[in-house]
Amino acid sequence: GTLTSFEDTQRFEHVFKMTRKTFSYICSLVMKPSMKDMNSYTFVDGRVLSLEDRVAVSLKRLYSSEPPETIGSSVGVNESTLLLVTESFVVSVDKRAGHHSRWPDSSEMDKIKSMFEKIHNMHNCCGVICTTHIPFGPNWDREKNDSILVQLVIDPEMRFRSIWWGRISSMNMLSILHESNLFNECEEGGYLNGSKLKVALDGSEVGEYIIGDAGFPLLPWLLTPYQEEDLSDSKAEFNRRHNAATTCALKALARFKDTWKYLQGETSCPVNPDTLVETIHACCYLHNIVIDMEEDGAMPSIEEPDDSEDDAATSSVEEPDESEELRQVANEDAVVARDMLSQYFLTTMSSESGARWMQRRTMK
Q1: pLDDT tens, residue by residue, 57-92
Q2: What is the mean pLDDT of residues 234-256?
Q3: pTM, whole model, 2 decimals?
Q4: What is its main location (predicted)?
Q5: Cα–Cα dist 48/360, whole Å
Q6: What DSSP element (H or E) covers 214?
Q7: Of 52, 83, 99, which closes a domain?
Q8: DSSP string, 158-204
Q9: Which of 81, 97, 253, 312 would bridge with 163, disulfide CB 3.0–4.6 Å?
Q10: Domain ranges, residue 175
Q11: CB contact at 8 A, 261 and 64
């Protein structure tokens, strides 16, 4: 039989960390490019690997930090076959699954904002930005920062909505943000341009925004926590909600690293930067596919790749040429937006508490 011949559904899901329906969708996603060399790879006993076998072998490889010879032996293929099959799978997913990490359209963004509001009372929030680093293989030099820095925007269901990367030896959180497609789109109004939140009786409004920790700059569309001591009630409430909302990013990164152990560099992560970036993209897309299939249940349609939509392009973008005066205005706008939002949070919290108190009195 094939490597996926499990009659027990629970056993299948334990081994492959996804439902059989999700596995079938991934097979359909990579089927077209796989047809070119369908009979090229065999088990050590001479049997040809089916499409399902190739996907199974690749997933086992990406899930593990064990040496390739150990993984190959466990699934009945030699080391070279394991490496070639996985490389082919990664390239196919990287090219054909990018639509699973698109920036949300207006209807999707409304749903995201509604979830942040319902779960964390973080009104008009559109995501959490964070960074993580991926090392260059088992011999990476921590002192030389020899790894890739990945910037992600994560929604409340732990999807990666924006992916950008750079060599950590030449970049930090600020520089990778400024070079990212996300920064340019937000600065130019392409992203976070949806409905605004009315925060005061005088008609003052706060636009859509994402949140990030204090390592990021405070911008009108990127709100960070207050850092000063002796915070007012409104600022303390903002920080409390901000901190609670960022947990989705922490959970997403923990899940990602626990699943795709291949990227942790303990034994077998590639040292070629291009190969590593393709693998990062593929694992991020697969992470999202599992969430999409768990949520919707229906089999997504297969979309042909469109190179123009690649949000994680490898070409760098020049830092915007802004004058100091424009930067100062932007900083002031960000401070005002955060202050208005924090005051709105405190006001709505007081109103909600009062409504609950009146409801309890009425019930008595």
Answers
A1: 999 999 998 999 999 999 999 999 999 999 999 999
A2: 97
A3: 0.86
A4: nucleus
A5: 69
A6: none
A7: 99
A8: --EEEEEEEETTT--HHHHHHHSHHHHHHHHTSSS-SPPEE-STT--
A9: 312
A10: 102-297+329-351
A11: yes
